[in-house]
């Protein structure tokens, strides 16, 4: 059986989306919708693996959809919905919990990072531990073939492929689930924190100075880039000299991506200049790119009923595909 190309990806509604989400995921989402059928999901069931205040959770779902749209996703081209509105995600997750292996989950580095030390781990939710199985269910429920994500999700994607393969083997249904391929953009797969270049930019890092949010004003962007860690020496002309300077490398990478140049070209242009020069240029280009997105997000958030309707329409479309696939899955597994 040949599976047609289908894109699926998810974003957690756990706060404001940031530049890492935008360059590592959303920009890819929007370009893919021009060429393939795409499904983009606000994964609220993933978010609650860590406690979320109910009123904040629903607000964050709206903020995430608004960010999808402001970044260029079009509900007439892509299916956009929230995960909990399609119950098939939870049902397939249970079936896949029984296919996936404890040994596989034990290797997941994101769980280790989020759950903390051995002692703290005891207090993590069971949901956080089996989170990658739910992610596999998200993808396989639609038999998606391509998954655009940032580099941090590569290991989870590999697990999804292992689960798909084991299901196909165990139930002797060769090629039933396609093995989903990650689509990770090469140049900009991981945007790092502005305060610590060894950590990824993240919604959960305490200091807001560590990230550029899609809703930041020009003034906030300016302040954050000014305060960002860089280097006291001038910008070098080669990559090798940046090896031990992750913060400087990160700023140069972001600038290269936004100015649509490769890093080598940026280094050629800027070699010998101080980082204050790069920061000035970077602020300009960020303000140009981000502030229109920020004002569009705000405009969209002023009309929640419109956003709600987009989610309802999207979940109806998603549910049709999900139910059709689930019917076959129940049959394969032998569930009456
Ligand atoms: P999350 O906010 O963790 O749900 O992530 C949503 C999407 O953004 C996923 O595809 C992530 O891989 C991607 N992403 C999150 N943080 C970063 C980052 N710092 N750099 C690049 N991509 C990221
Ligand atoms: N785990 C992903 C993240 O934290 C979000 C996610 C959930 C996802 N389900 C997915 C991404 C399915 C791609 C496909 O970023």
Provide a concise account of the structure shown.
This protein is mostly helical and 336 residues long. 54% of the residues lie in helices and 7% in strands. It is built from 14 helices and five strands.
Strand order of the largest sheet: 1-2-3
Number of helices: 14
**Estimated radius of gyration:** 21 Å
Q: Give the rounded overall mean pLDDT.
A: 96
Kindly report how far apart the N and C termini lie.
Answer: 25 Å
What is the share of helical residues?
40-55%
The secondary structure category is mainly alpha
The kinds of small molecule bound in this structure are:
adenosine monophosphate, tryptophan
Q: What is the beta-strand fraction?
A: 5-15%
